Amino acid sequence: MKKKLLGLLAGVLAVMSMTGCGAVKYKVDADFGYKLDKDSYAAGEEVTAVYDMIGTDSDYTFYCENDDVSLKQEYDSKRGYVITFTMPAHDVKLGVKRRSSMEMDPDAIIPNPSDPPVTGFMPLGDIWTCPECNAAGNVGGYCSNCGAKKPE
Ligand SMILES: [Zn+2]
Asked: Distance, CA 141 to ligand 1 centroid (Å)?
């Protein structure tokens, strides 16, 4: 009686191991940034992908290139975006689209690093150094120090 039960149990285990290890697994090809708990999944298995490469100024769109897969998306403040779906009986391609949420302002003045620093002093004409007395910073037609005429 006991032997028969063990034999039955062994048979059940054999069938289970056959469906377990022998089951066809499918791959998830995910874009850079996704973290998957496994490399391959059996059909019907729940797949969890975590995306934690998040910039504060960007919006993310997570999508699957396979039409028969619908993604469920949640945001976990500790883990990042958690995307779950049920594995279909084929390979799956997961993608992510990143878009900056900061709108470009066409009127914004973009500082040119090659421009000289703005000091608040706007010269009206040429600044010249007097050849007679070496006084620098003359702006008019005559030297502010000695009154010599500006050289041509
Ligand atoms: Zn001078």
From this structure: 11
